[in-house]
Each structure stands twice: as structure tokens, then as C-alpha cells.
Amino acid sequence: MTGSLGSGPEARALLRDRLVAAGHQIDSGLPGIYGRSAAYEAVAMGIIEAARARVEPGADPVRWYFPPLMSRETFERTDYLESFPNLTGVVDVFDGGDAEHAELLATRESGADWAGRLTPSQATLVPATCHNVYRHFTGVLPAPVRLDALGTCFRHEPSADPMRMVTFRIHEEIYLGTEDGALDHRDRWLAITRELMTDLGLVVEVDVANDPFFGRAGRILARGQREDALKFEVLTHVYDDAPTAIASGNAHRTHFGVNFGITLPDGEPAHSSCSGIGVERTANALFARHGMDLGSWPAQVRTLLGV
User: Is residue 117 within 8 Å of residue 109, measured between CB atoms?
Assistant: First the structure.
């Protein structure tokens, strides 16, 4: 196992530089956006498959895979814009003709911001994998639903810290149904995830948490979320000064049931919950813990990941 990375900005830069020097992450020229080596991708997919292998016997949830884009209409129904405008990303496109194209090129040649001549499309970047799911269950939910979903996500918080990327994947186990079922699903998968991370050689703890809601009203929401223990995080110490969340379990109550018109047979809004693993965060934590050479990792970890 590797030694301590230390603390502060230097520790974040050190981990980034080690991952890039080893070829596991490929620098894009922008902070928080990286390509990946074949070895890195093998670890990432191994994390996902190791989690899936822990689904209880007899349960076989539907598996969905989502791209990094979603419709703006769906995005707006999640209320993400109200809570996290600072993390939001939209897709702008060119939709003009020859005259507009000439103006676009002239703007670029002048050194001005040519992107201002683009038009917002009907697509936004996906902030959380589960946000792509709920629109498919509008109406009466005859029985609880469980899904296994993997998606590429985006949050506008560029950083030199490779544990805080702009674009990344979240693997989620999602539940739609009753209040008790949603809470049981969250708690059960938190326990499963904690055990998985421990088996991978990480030292972890679970603690109540809150989302970084925006603004003054957001601070009230965050306090309520924490007081009601709706969100828990699985934390590990990659750096000495603060733990990093590599997974979380969230109870949404009826938020998505109401926003997407999902009801139970008795007419009440459906509850939902999800348990998500940050794939790249977990992979980076493993490289920080076990070193950049996969061949030197503990045999039981490599076997669990299938690498």
C-alpha cells in the first residue's frame, strides 16, 4: 500500500500527477475532465460488476445505461436547477444559416466569445444517473420497481482534485415504491456498499450528510435533509485533512413521485431512493490506496475486480 498523500492542494495535485504519469488518466487540458487507460477502465468496470454481484439471490433488477445527455424537459422536472444552478450544464448548438455562420467565424477571428452566438438546445447534461429514470414510470406504479443504472454525469465544479471531477460515472441501485421499501432499499445498499469498499481494501465509514444546495434557501434545505437523515455517504480518507465521499444512499421521499406523476395503486405519490457509487472516485481511491501498478495490488482485490 502507498504512503500518505498528505493534505491541502499539494496532496490533490500529487494524486492527479501520479494518475497522469502512470497513464491511467489522460489530461484533456481542462481540470476535472480526463480520458482513461485500459487498465483504469478495467478497474472501473470491475467496481460496477462487483457491486452487481452483491444483489440478493433471486433479485434481478432491470439494467439501464444512460448517455451524458437528457432532455431539458426532463431536467426541469427534477428541480435540479432550483437547487444546484451552479453545477448545471446545458448544450448549446449552432442552428443558423450561411449568414450566421459568417458572423460566427468573424466573431472568432476578432477574439470575442464566439460561443455567445450559439443557441441552447433541448438537451442538458445529466447531473445524476437516476434523473433519467423517473419519466419512464409516470402513472400508476402497480408494484415496486428496482433498477440497476449506469450513466455518465456532469457537475460544473472544475478542480485539480481528481476525486472531484466535472464528468464521471455513477452506478446506482434505484427503488420506486412505498416509503418503507425506499428506506429499506437505501439502508440495505449502504451496508452492501460499505462491505464492498472494505473488501476492496479501503478504510471507510458511513455518516449522515447533505447535498450542497445553492443559496440561502438551499442552506435551509440542507439542514432539513441532514436533520431528517435522508442522505448518508460512504467516506474514505484519500487525503489526511478531510474524507471524501465515494458512494451515497439517498431517500427522496415523494419528490420524484410528485414531480413525475408516479403514484401507488392507492393514489398516493410513490417514494424513491437510490444508492450510488462514484465509479471514478472509487477507482482513484483504489489507486491512491494500492499504488499505480495494478500488478502490485493485493490478490484478493484484483480477484474481486476481475483484473
Answer: no
Considering the domain architecture, whether residues 244 and 278 belong to the same structural domain is answered as: yes
Measure the CA–CA gap between 153 and 127, rounded to whole angstroms: 5
Same domain, 60 and 159: yes
Residue 2 has a pLDDT of: 61
Domain total of the chain: 2
Query: Do residues 81 and 161 both lie within one domain?
Result: yes
In sequence order, the β-bridge partners of residue 250 are 231, 274
The CA-based angle 22-65-26, given to 5 degrees, is: 15
Pairing mode of beta strands 139-140, 262-263 = parallel
User: 113 is in which domain, residue-wise?
Assistant: 92-124
Contacts 24+ apart (CB under 8 A), 212-216: 212/84, 213/83, 213/84, 214/83, 214/84, 214/85, 214/86
**Residue 12 in contact with residue 32, Cβ under 8 Å?**
no
Q: What is the CB neighbour count within 10 angstroms for residue 243?
A: 16
Q: What is the pTM of this model?
A: 0.93
Dump pLDDT digits (tens) for 252-273: 999 999 999 999 999 999 999 9
Q: Answer positive or negative: Cα dihedral of 260, 266, 270, 275.
A: negative
- State the Cα–Cα distance between residues 15 and 286, nearest whole angstrom: 11
**Nearest-angstrom CA–CA distance, 208 and 199:** 22
Grid cell locating 291: 499504488
